[in-house]
Request: fold
Amino acid sequence: LNLGECAGAGIVDYLHVHVVPRWSGDSNFMPILSGTRMLSEGLHALYDKLIEAQIKIEVQSRPST
Reply:
């Protein structure tokens, strides 16, 4: 998940997600070459978290009355 201006071409509200198929026992180069941890999460769990975050953002951005 890449979020914010650093995620894409200087666009402040930019968001993009990489969906990478994984399998038991696989490994990749990210932890070794870049010191980055990969977090595996099911799509349903990720969807629930994104919906929850979106609701919080919408509530916070509503004009107060």
